[in-house]
Structures are given as C-alpha cells and as structure tokens.
Amino acid sequence: DFGFDGVLVGRSAIKTISEKYKGRVPHNTFSANKAALMTFTSGSTSGPKPLVFTNRALVAGAVYNKTAAKVKMWDKKIHTWMQFVTLNYAYGFWVSAMSPILGGGKTILTPDVGPERIDYYFKKNPDAIFGSPAVIEMLHSHISEDTSLSNLKIFASGGDRLYPEMAERTIELLKQHGAHATLCNGYGLSEILGLV
C-alpha cells in the first residue's frame, strides 16, 4: 500500500476512500499538474513500480496513443478497441481501456482471455487491439486457421519488449488472417507518462 493525498491506496483503496468521503463530496479543483491517477507498471523491468499520473500526463497519453497509431479522434474506421491487458496496470487501465473511450470509441474488455478463448474474442471483429508480447505468442500458437482479422487496422503491443523478429512474424501472421494492420510497440509508455 502507498500513501496518496492522505488516502491509503492499495488492495483496500475503495473501502478506505469510501469511508473517508462517506456523506460528503471531496473538494477537488482541477489542475493540469494535479495528481489524477495512481497505478503501477507491469513489473517487466524488476517488479511493479507505483506511478502517479497528473491530469496533463493522462491527456498526453491519450494524444500519444492516437498520434502513434495515426488515428484521428472519433475515427469511424477505428472505433472498436479490444483490450487484452489487465486493468491493474497503467497500460491496461489508462492506455487500453480509457483512451479509446475518450477518443469517442468503445473498448471491448477481455476478462477471461486464454488460449481456448482467443478465437472467441477475435470473432468480435475489433478495429484495433491493445495487447502484449504474451498475447502475440498466444495468437501465434492458438488462432484458428479460419479466423478472419480483416477488420483489424492496429495491433498495439506494450507491457514488455516486442523484439523485431517477433514483430515481423506477427505482421506476416496478421496478413495471413486478412489484416493489413499497423503493429505499434508502446513499451515503456507508463514510465514516461508518469514523468510528464
């Protein structure tokens, strides 16, 4: 657990926060440099590290995601984003789940993703996917030959390093399944935005 603005943030955060503010609305004046979200990195570089994002950093993250993927806000061609990343981390919660919503799109959550469910989720025809190298490995090992990914335009990988060899193999696999998608490598974004 970590202290944050007088509130204990950790496993019991919701209960602690609700008890602190029971019966009253907390006073919070918006400011670009004010802390807005506390979360953790995925732990791929030596264990999870806490991150405190300011309002400015959250907006910068949403802008970066749209710019890096060459997506215009409220782009009707890229409207449905599938999120294959746990919500416990910045990449999962802020980048994968919230950014598409703020851009006018929708997010498809995948709470029970696993090798046996990969085709089930891909048949939802997402325009874009937020995943990780682990999801890419699962894709290589478990996608059915007849699964079409022709709707897919972007596959964003984060949470761990995506090596060039794996990226090349993945682009070929996506093409084999009808996708002409851009593969984006967003590893390290959480740490950077935590400093904005």
Which terms would index this structure?
disordered N terminus, 196 residues, alpha/beta, globular
What features would you describe in this structure?
By secondary structure, the protein is an alpha/beta fold. It contains 7 helices and 9 strands. The protein has a 5-stranded parallel beta sheet with strand order 6-5-7-8-9, with helices on both faces. A two-stranded antiparallel ribbon has the order 1-2. The chain is globular. The two termini are 23 Å apart. The model is unreliable at 1-11 (pLDDT under 50).
Strand content: 15-25%
**How would the global form be characterised?**
globular
Q: Give the integer mean of the pLDDT values.
A: 76
Q: Please bin the fraction of helical residues.
A: 25-40%
Quickly give the structural class: alpha/beta
Along the chain, the helix and strand elements come as EEHEEHEHEHEHEHEH
Brief sketch in words of this structure:
The chain is an alpha/beta fold and 196 residues long. The protein contains seven helices and nine strands. The longest helix has 14 residues, at 55-68.
Q: Any chance you could write out the topology, listing elements then pairs?
A:
Elements: E1 2-4, E2 7-9, H1 13-20, E3 35-40, E4 50-54, H2 55-68, E5 80-83, H3 90-102, E6 106-109, H4 118-122, E7 128-131, H5 133-142, E8 154-157, H6 164-176, E9 182-185, H7 189-193
Parallel strand pairs: 5-6, 5-7, 7-8, 8-9
Antiparallel strand pairs: 1-2, 3-4
